[in-house]
């Protein structure tokens, strides 16, 4: 079932995710709903906070063409999409970084160059509750880091340079105001 995407200004986006105690049908149903929501919005990643659930669950679904180098070789061979990460934890990150534009479903139509490690290793539970440790590179690594930021209450605006925040300040303030007005409208009897 498609869920509402919570946008900047909604306090749930600043909540730190609670660890998942047990990977059960309720968690798998949440992940299915998140996938449907993400696909409907044409995103490549989504964290549970973005659909109003402060639990340590995020998903990614990166198109294959975004995981290839100039010669067409995969950066992450053997990775199948979509991927769900339950209780993800960053184990290591490369010293090598890359800056690239990032967007976020909670910040519609706002993009900013963000510097991130090119490679990360992550521990997580899969859909069956089995522990996994994998290393990811390039765009998939970026998407995972972005979603894991959400689980810690860290948002796109927190990763932007001061200059980019100034440039986008009108859009960001407008989005925050619209979100707060919407929340106030929902709370009114």
Written overview of the protein:
It is a single chain. With 189 residues, the chain is α+β, with helices and mostly antiparallel strands. Helix content is 32%, strand content 27%. The chain has helices spanning 25-40, 138-151, 156-159, 162-187; strands at residues 45-47, 57-60, 83-93, 97-104, 107-117, 119-125, 131-137. Strands 1-2-3-6-7 form a five-stranded antiparallel β-sheet. The protein has a two-stranded antiparallel sheet with strand order 4-5.
Bulk shape: globular
Residue windows where pLDDT falls under 50 for at least 5 positions: none
CATH class: Alpha Beta
| Total number of strands | 7
Which H/E pattern describes the elements?
Answer: HEEEEEEEHHH
Let me know the largest β-sheet. 5 strands, antiparallel
The number of helical segments is 4
Structural class: alpha+beta
**Would you identify the CATH architecture?**
Alpha-Beta Complex
| CATH topology title | Peptide Deformylase
Count of the domains: 1
Percent of residues in helical segments? 25-40%
Name given to the CATH homologous superfamily: Peptide deformylase
Distance between the termini: 26 Å
Strand order of the largest sheet: 1-2-3-6-7
Q: Give the strand content.
A: 25-35%
Radius of gyration computed on alpha carbons: 17 Å
On the 0 to 100 scale, the average pLDDT is 96
Report a brief summary of the structure.
The protein has 189 residues and is an alpha+beta fold. 32% of the residues lie in helices and 27% in strands.
